[in-house]
């Protein structure tokens, strides 16, 4: 049995293509792997604050020296990190906002990319501690940006995931969604064709 952690980051509840892709992924995965556990964390519903002084202070102090706000911030980070540590498969649903990922997803990453927990520093540089996990990134893009210098989404997420040791990463892009009906239909069809091969 595998544990699948799905992170939703679209700010839209209705008409969200990334949410449609997530629903397709979950349905296909459950059909092929009925014994697996799937957990969904929706960052639009359960918002994760941006990295701030309280969280940084909480990380830097022993538990008995933290104030109540720092304890709450550290506990939130611990919860999110524990979910990631427990997962065998990570699914990131990431619409492209202004050529990059939503700030909500960046906030989640800031809570779980933690020295000594998900990566460590060594004499030869940082080393990821989450080896053996797989990741799938489902993106929705108004234009066509794959391989373009304007794509600050895939390169960043690849680097962030590799930094914590997740190198088996598959990107599934639904592109051209705002370029007319033909591009929309083609983009969705291509993404769903790739999704069908995943489970």
UniProtKB/TrEMBL annotation:
The keyword Flavoprotein applies. It holds the Pfam family Flavodoxin_2. It is an enzyme of class 1 (oxidoreductase). Keywords: Flavoprotein, FMN, NAD, Oxidoreductase. Its EC number is 1.6.5.-, 1.7.1.17. It catalyses: N,N-dimethyl-1,4-phenylenediamine + anthranilate + 2 NAD(+) = 2-(4-dimethylaminophenyl)diazenylbenzoate + 2 NADH + 2 H(+); 2 a quinone + NADH + H(+) = 2 a 1,4-benzosemiquinone + NAD(+). The keyword Flavoprotein applies. FMN binds at residues 10, 16-18, 96-99. It comes from the Bacteria. Its cofactor is FMN. Residues 3-197 form the Flavodoxin-like fold domain. Binds 1 FMN per subunit. One of its GO terms (molecular function) is oxidoreductase activity, acting on NAD(P)H, quinone or similar compound as acceptor. Belongs to the azoreductase type 1 family. Quinone reductase that provides resistance to thiol-specific stress caused by electrophilic quinones. This is FMN dependent NADH:quinone oxidoreductase. It comes from Aquipseudomonas campi. The gene is azoR.
